[in-house]
Amino acid sequence: MPITEVAMSILDQVRALAQRLSSPNSSDDETFHAIMTDFELVTNPGEFRGKYGMSRSTISRWRSGHSVPHPALRPRIYQWLRKLANAKVAELTAEHAHAKASATKNEGKGNIPATLG
């Protein structure tokens, strides 16, 4: 799969995460677990732990669905992840537009764009 298709797939996944974060049910454990399985699309466990002071094992239990944070903490987590997801969507959209523009510019010149080669 060319890199542009991979990038579009990732962009679609991040957009879906941002959509789920737009109005999540803070008391729904399944929603929290679904979001936690995808949070690495926009951040990493170390950054997550640093932001909320959670241990590695706590984050692991949240991701596996073995435990969840108190419903009162979830809106803050969702808000932070939504901000990161929206920024990632903007970044990936700009990268895709740049790659597409480069491909169009190099079309017919016999050049293979760096993003496709």
Task: Describe the model.
With 117 residues, this protein is mainly alpha-helical. It has one domain (3-106). The chain contains five helices and no strands. It is elongated. The model has no long low-confidence stretch (mean pLDDT 84).
Q: How would you characterize the largest beta sheet?
A: none
Query: What structural class do you assign from the helix and strand content?
Result: mainly alpha
List the secondary-structure elements in sequence, H or E.
HHHHH
Q: Termini separation (Å)?
A: 11 Å
The count of strands amounts to 0
Shape: elongated
How many helical stretches?
5
List unreliable stretches of 5+ residues.
none
How many structural domains can be distinguished in the coordinates?
1
In percent, how much strand structure appears in the residues? under 5%
Summarize model confidence as the mean pLDDT.
Answer: 84
Rounded to an integer, what's the Rg over CA atoms? 18 Å
SSE blueprint:
Elements: H1 3-22, H2 29-38, H3 45-52, H4 56-64, H5 74-106
Helix pairs in contact: 1-5
Characteristic terms for this protein:
single chain; 5 helices; 117 residues; mainly alpha
